[in-house]
C-alpha cells in the first residue's frame, strides 16, 4: 500500500501555461469566461430540446488540447458544471500519461497545483483514502511534472466551480476495473464531480477522423468497452468511468464534437457537423459528454436513447466575445455595499430552433427539477408578456405587466413623493432612471450623454430606494448588480449599480466600447424586504409564495441570495424557484432548516424598448 509523504510536499508549477492556454491571468480569465458564456447558450438550447438536463452532472468527459482548438468543446461540459458552484467542493480529474508512463493510476505528493489564476489545493486525504482502498492507486511525482491533460482543466474548474479542492490523477497501464475502483473510492456524493480528460483520434485525414470519432462517440454513449488508445488518447481513464457507469446503470450524454480543423467551432448535439474545409488535413478529434447520477437519470434505457438522439445529429456553435449569460453563479456581486447581492436571473432564452418548433421531442429523462415543457411554457409566457407591455413616456420606458395601469391612471400615485404612500414611481421618473443608468456607463466609456433627467423628476430621483440594474445584450445577461436595502438616492444608486453591472460583475468581462449601443438596460426599484411569517418548513414557504410578483430573499447564517420577480418567467414552479435559490446561496438544493429566514419584496421595473 502506497502512502503520501508529508515531508515531500510541494506546489506543482504550471507546466504548459503560455502554450496550451494564456499565461496572463487576466487574459486567461477572460478567455475561459467567454468560452463558458457561449457554451451556456448552447446548453440552454439543448435543454429546451430535451437533449440534456440543465443541472449539475456527476461526471464529464472533456478534451485537453490547447484552448484554441478544443476550448469551446470543453466549455459545453463546464457550462453545466457551473451550476454546482457552492455545492461542489471537490473535483477528481483523471487524464492519461503522455510523457512518463506508469503502471496504475498515479497521484503525486503535491499539496497544490499552481495556475495563473492561483494555486488549487490538492485533497490529500481523499488521495490517501484511494491509496488505501484501490489497489491500482500509486504515488508518482515524475508523471505529473510535465503532463498537460489534468493541468489544462484547472482554469475551467476554477472559473466555474471556484477554488475547490482537486484530486489530480494520471492513469497509465490499468484495466477498466482498476481505474473504476479508483473512481469508486473517490465517487463521493454531490460534493464531488469526476472529470475525465481525453481527446479522440489523432492525425487522421479530416474526413476519416470524423468517421472514426463518430464510431468512438457511439461506443462511449453505449458504454461499449473497451475504448482503445488509437480511438481516444485518454482511453484508459474513459474506460474506468464507463466501468462505473455500467455498474450504476448510467449513460454518457454527448454535448458536442469537433476537430482541430474546425477552427474552434463545435457542433453541438442535435444538428449536423460544420463543413470540412480540407478533407485531407490531419486533425485531432474532440468531444464532450456529461453523465447524470440517479435519481436524475431516469433509467439507463431512457438515458441511452436520449444520448443516441444526441449522437445522431449536431448543430454548429462558434465562440463569441460578448453578450452571453451565466446562470447558476453564486457570486454576490455588490461587494461595496453589503448585504447587496447579484440578482443572478435565469437567462432569457431565445426562441427554439425551427427544428424544435416542428418536432416536439420527449422530455429528457433527466428533466426533473426543470422540465423541458416548463421551460417552453416560460418562453411562451415571456414572449406574450413582452408583446403586451405598453410603451411609457418618451417611448423609452417599458414596465412590467403588473404595473401597466400606471400609464393610464396617473392618479394612482401622488405627484409629490413626500405624500406618496403606494411605493409607485411615475413613468417619467422611470424614464429618467434609464437615462441616469445609460449616462453612467457612457461616462466610463468616454461617450457623450444621451440626455439629462428633467427638473420635474428631481424630487423623485432624490428619494432613497434600493435598485438592481440589469444589462442584457441580444437577450443574454451581460451583468446584474444591485442592493436589497435603500442607502442612497435613486439617482446615485442606479448610477453606481449601472457602472458595477457593466464593469465590475465578476461573472463577465467588462463591457467594451463597441458593445455600448447593443446594451439593453433595465432598472428594478425594490420595496423594502419583509419577513414571510409562519415559515417553519419548505412546504410553508411554498404555500406562501406569490409567483410572478414576489422577489425572494433567503438567509441562513452567512448564506444569502435573492431572485428578482422576473426570474419567475424562467422558474415558474415555486419548488424549482426555491431549489435554485438555495443552490445560489451555496446550500444544497434540497436543504431546509428552521433557521432559514425568508423575505419577500416587490419591484417596479423600467426597461428600455427592445432593440
UniProtKB/TrEMBL annotation:
Please give the organism: Pseudoscardovia radai
The protein in question is named Dioxygenase
Which family does the UniProt entry place this protein in?
Belongs to the MEMO1 family.
Matching entries from PROSITE patterns are given as: AMMECR1 (PS51112)
Q: Where is the composition biased (Low complexity)?
A: 351-361
Q: Where is this region: Disordered?
A: 322-365
Q: Which Pfam families match?
A: AMMECR1, Memo
The regions listed as transmembrane in this protein's record are none
**Keywords in UniProt for this one?**
Dioxygenase, Oxidoreductase
Q: Does the keyword Phosphoprotein apply?
A: no
Q: Which Gene3D superfamilies match?
A: Hypothetical protein ph0010, domain 1 (3.30.700.20), Hypothetical protein ph0010, domain 2 (3.30.1490.150), LigB-like (3.40.830.10)
Q: List, for all copies, the residue spans of the domain called AMMECR1.
A: 422-611
Q: Which GO terms describe its molecular function?
A: dioxygenase activity
Task: Print the organism lineage.
Answer: Bacteria, Bacillati, Actinomycetota, Actinomycetes, Bifidobacteriales
Amino acid at each position: 500500500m502506497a502512502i503520501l509523504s508529508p515531508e515531500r510536499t510541494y506546489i506543482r508549477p504550471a507546466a504548459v501555461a503560455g502554450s496550451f492556454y494564456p499565461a496572463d491571468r487576466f487574459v486567461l480569465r477572460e478567455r475561459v469566461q467567454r468560452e463558458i458564456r457561449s457554451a451556456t447558450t448552447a446548453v440552454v438550447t439543448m435543454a429546451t430540446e430535451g437533449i440534456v438536463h440543465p443541472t449539475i452532472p456527476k461526471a464529464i468527459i472533456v478534451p485537453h488540447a490547447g484552448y484554441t482548438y478544443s476550448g469551446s468543446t470543453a466549455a459545453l461540459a463546464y457550462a453545466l458544471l457551473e451550476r454546482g458552484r457552492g455545492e461542489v467542493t471537490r473535483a477528481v480529474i483523471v487524464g492519461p500519461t503522455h510523457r512518463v508512463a506508469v503502471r496504475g493510476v498515479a497521484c503525486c505528493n503535491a499539496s497544490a497545483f499552481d495556475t495563473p489564476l492561483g494555486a488549487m489545493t490538492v485533497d490529500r486525504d481523499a488521495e490517501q483514502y484511494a491509496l488505501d482502498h484501490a489497489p491500482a492507486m500509486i504515488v508518482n511525482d515524475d508523471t505529473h511534472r510535465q503532463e498537460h491533460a489534468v493541468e489544462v482543466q484547472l482554469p475551467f474548474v476554477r472559473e466555474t466551480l471556484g477554488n475547490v479542492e482537486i484530486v489530480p490523477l494520471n492513469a497509465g497501464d490499468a484495466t477498466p476495473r482498476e481505474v473504476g475502483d479508483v473512481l469508486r473510492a473517490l465517487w463521493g456524493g454531490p460534493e464531488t464531480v469526476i472529470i475525465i480528460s481525453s481527446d479522440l483520434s489523432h492525425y487522421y485525414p479530416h474526413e476519416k477522423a470524423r468517421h472514426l470519432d463518430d464510431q468512438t462517440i457511439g461506443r462511449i454513449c453505449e458504454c461499449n468497452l473497451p475504448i482503445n488508445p488509437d480511438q481516444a488518447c485518454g482511453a484508459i481513464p474513459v474506460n474506468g468511468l464507463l466501468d462505473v457507469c455500467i455498474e450504476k446503470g448510467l449513460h454518457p450524454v454527448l454535448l458536442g464534437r469537433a476537430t482541430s480543423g474546425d477552427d474552434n467551432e463545435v457542433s453541438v448535439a442535435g444538428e449536423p457537423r460544420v463543413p470540412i474545409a480540407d478533407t485531407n488535413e490531419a486533425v485531432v478529434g474532440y468531444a464532450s459528454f456529461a453523465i447524470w447520477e440517479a435519481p436524475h437519470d431516469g433509467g439507463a434505457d431512457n438515458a441511452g436513447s436520449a444520448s443516441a438522439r444526441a449522437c445522431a445529429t449536431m448543430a454548429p456553435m462558434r465562440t463569441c466575445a460578448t453578450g452571453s449569460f451565466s446562470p447558476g453563479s453564486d457570486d454576490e456581486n455588490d461587494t461595496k455595499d453589503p448585504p447587496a447581492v447579484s440578482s443572478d436571473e435565469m437567462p432569457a432564452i431565445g426562441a427554439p430552433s425551427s427544428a424544435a418548433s416542428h418536432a416536439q421531442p420527449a422530455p429528457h429523462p433527466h428533466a426533473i427539477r426543470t422540465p423541458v415543457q416548463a421551460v417552453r411554457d416560460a418562453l411562451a409566457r415571456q414572449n406574450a408578456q413582452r408583446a403586451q407591455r405598453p410603451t411609457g413616456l418618451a417611448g423609452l420606458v417599458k414596465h412590467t405587466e403588473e404595473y401597466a395601469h400606471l400609464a393610464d391612471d396617473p392618479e394612482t400615485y401622488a405627484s409629490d413623493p413626500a405624500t406618496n404612500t403606494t411605493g409607485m414611481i411615475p413613468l417619467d421618473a422611470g424614464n429618467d432612471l434609464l437615462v441616469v443608468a445609460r449616462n453612467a456607463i457612457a461616462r466610463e466609456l468616454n461617450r457623450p450623454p444621451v440626455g439629462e433627467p428633467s427638473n420635474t423628476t428631481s424630487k423623485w430621483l432624490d428619494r432613497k430606494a434600493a435598485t438592481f440594474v440589469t444589462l442584457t445584450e441580444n437577450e443574454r445577461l451581460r451583468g446584474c448588480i444591485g442592493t436589497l436595502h435603500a442607502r442612497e438616492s435613486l439617482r446615485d444608486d442606479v448610477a453606481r449599480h449601472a457602472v458595477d453591472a457593466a464593469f465590475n460583475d465578476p461573472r463577465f468581462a467588462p463591457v467594451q466600447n463597441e458593445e455600448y449601443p447593443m446594451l439593453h438596460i433595465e432598472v428594478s426599484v425594490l420595496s423594502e424586504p419583509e419577513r414571510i411569517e409562519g415559515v417553519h418548513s419548505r412546504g410553508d414557504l411554498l404555500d406562501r409564495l406569490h409567483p410572478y410578483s414576489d422577489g425572494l430573499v433567503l438567509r441562513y447564517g452567512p448564506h444569502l441570495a435573492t431572485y428578482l420577480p422576473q426570474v419567475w418567467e424562467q422558474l415558474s414552479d415555486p419548488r424549482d424557484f426555491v431549489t435554485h435559490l438555495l443552490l445560489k446561496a451555496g446550500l444544497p438544493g434540497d436543504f431546509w432548516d428552521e433557521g432559514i429566514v425568508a423575505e419577500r419584496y416587490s419591484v417596479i421595473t423600467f426597461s428600455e424598448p427592445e432593440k
